[in-house]
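Hello Y.,

Per our agreement to keep a running log of every chain we model this quarter, I'm adding this entry. I've kept the format consistent with earlier entries: sequence first, then predicted structure.
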Amino acid sequence: MGAFGCRGSNRYGGRLDFDEDKQVLRISATVGSCGVSASDVPYTITPIPGSNYEYWVQPDYSSTDFKVRLAACRDPSINADFFDSLHVKSNKGVLMSDITINGG
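Predicted structure for the entry above:
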């Protein structure tokens, strides 16, 4: 399983864990004092044109309650749509743990 951490602060952070055998991921997010996660989330990944190392990861949360639980955190800085499209950026030869993920 590949794991990708994201840059955050003491109030915000997250992690994506990709399954090696099927195209699903586990997402964990910290929003203020609220923690939300979902497992077995299908996703699509699309290269960003003009870049060799940047991608859009678009999770399909329809089989989960991730967005409902995220909205229940009631943080004015983050809305539930923030996690619809994740910008994944890496450098050639970089370790998976050094890849950064930002909401789109």
